[in-house]
Amino acid sequence: MNATAWLVWGFVFQACFFMRFVVQWIASEREKRSVVPTSFWYFSLAGGMGLFIYAVHLGDPVILVGQTTGVFIYLRNLVLIKRTADQEPIAQDPPEQA
User: pLDDT per residue over 12-29, tens digit each?
Assistant: First the structure.
């Protein structure tokens, strides 16, 4: 890719990274309390991975280390969310009355 394409790449994934805060803010306002929705972690992961690739291209060790650490945290949170969801009992329909 040329320099302009890499610049666009960087801005797109920075926007993904930024969107996690927008999503968290909207969810918190709706609930009237601080919440972190699952989509926060997906936006974090997408933004972090895209910025990691951008950092590899730039050869920037500061961004590389920061994004690598973050990606592991985002993945871990998604694993914990999935594990919790898998352990929750599935709601069953009440028995029909005759």
Answer: 988 988 898 899 999 999
